[in-house]
What we know:
single chain, 385 residues, alpha/beta, Rossmann fold, 3 domains, eight-stranded mixed sheet, 14 helices, 11 strands, flat
Amino acid sequence: MKVKKYVAKDFQSAITQAKMEMGKDAIILSSRQVRRKGLRGFFSRPYYEVTVAMDKDLRVEMDRRRNHMNSSSPMAAFDEKNSSLYSSERREQELLDELKHMKLLMDDIKSRMHEMDVIKGVSEPAQEFYQLLLKKNVKKEIALRLAARIDQRLPRDQDADPDWIRDIYTHTVQECLGEAQPIVVNEQKGKVVVMVGPTGVGKTTTIAKLAANMTFMEAKEVAFITLDTYRISAAEQLRTFAEIIGIPIRIVFHAADLIDAIQEFRHKDLIFIDTAGRSPYNNDHMGELHEFLRAAQADEVILVLSATTDSTDLIQIYERFNLMCVDKLIFTKLDETNSYGQILNVLDEVDKPVAYFTTGQSVPDDIEVPDPLRFAKMLIEGKDA
């Protein structure tokens, strides 16, 4: 029997490694969360260690029986002996499946036990903070890590002022957002900023907000290029915004034309390129987008994400679009949700700064450079904080 350990940032990644090397019939013997040693390890995210086994003798015997059945004549193969072999093989496979299922259940139980061990060892305010984060859709592992950090910062005085405790909550979450990095226009002309993202996240409206603010508030010369030729309404919407703001616009159908359009606007301070909304799981569409980005030679590629999207989907969307080297993130539709844990989950997973939040459809309003303190209060207390 072959036994091997796999270590990865999460359980699913470890299992994927195991399947690739050991095969789909491998058995999970154990899994656990492991932290690095020392003080830094206490505050860092745990990684997962999965132990997997593969019984080669059993695999060979199962393959032999399959080959024996396949080599038999069509009618003779179903005699009593082969039927018995088939039933035996099926029982073996059912047993393996049952063992795998049991191991998954055990892993889930171990995870819950770990959670209980951590939580029961911290103060009551830290436990309350943990439960609050879970209600706000913050992942368990992140919530546990922040609860432990809170516990380190709280005094052992059980009569501590509740407002002071709330301030500690807020500042602990504030640290997770990091420093915002909005678009900066320097003296160099022709800065190219490309907005990418899935359908329906509000890229076109976001570009209009940014262009209006750059034009009227910062006195910059701005131009639009749109690649969204799939939706007539999108191109017309951006054209309308361009006329209102008083800036030029080009509609581009091919990558070669994009190069010409950028060259035409090189004398402008900032060139915004609006791309068509793409499903990150459609390889043809993503390939076409990649071709446009190669032609654009953008100074910044900004991924636009909706705050109403589930954390798992947000991270998967990021991973697909990051094949095109995303520089920054924009989260839209913060006004359409009262839970911001998914933003915290994404920022904990990916190493990219946030450029802007959008909070409505009004142009040029409803867009802001994220304030970490305000974001922390919104996450803890709701959007009206």
